[in-house]
Amino acid sequence: MIASILGFIYAVGQVLVPCLPPVPLSREVLTDQYLGKWHYIGVASWYQKDIADFQAVDSAQVELKNVNDNLVMTGALREGADCVNKAWTYKPEPELDYIMDENGHLGVAWDGKWLNCPSCLILGKLHPDAAFIRFMLFARTEKTTELVESFKTKMGCFGIDKFIIAPETKALCKLEGTD
Known about the structure:
Elements: H1 2-16, E1 36-45, E2 57-67, E3 70-79, E4 82-92, E5 100-102, E6 105-111, E7 120-127, E8 132-139, H2 145-156, E9 162-165
Antiparallel strand pairs: 1-2, 1-8, 1-9, 2-3, 3-4, 4-5, 5-6, 6-7, 7-8
């Protein structure tokens, strides 16, 4: 009940203040709606060096699973002619419901409603040791110009002006270990 009221207040706030940052997703709502396959759309940060690793990514798809109350992301990235498979495990922080730990890196997830894309997911990652943060955009469907522009506009509200959008010129790689 309280979550519904807060959600309504936040929705009204978004109309009045379009650059209001999104509310992070609680681990309690990271359920079937967010699990499954996603297309990687792009990444954003304040500094190019924070997202440089994504320059070689032509296209990618990931799958989110709940494994023993951890969020496990497996990804198949197309880098040139190669397919690179990776996996990340996000463990919920006990004291902060919406913070997840990925080997010392902090992760926060937001739904895409902030971008007028209910079938989108934004994953923010803070790497304290390397002193950088980046925001990755995922969608259930392939990217559109409108989605990319919305992402850039909303990130621009916070002075974020460095982007790498996956060009998607080659076929997606197959996710290993998935149906």
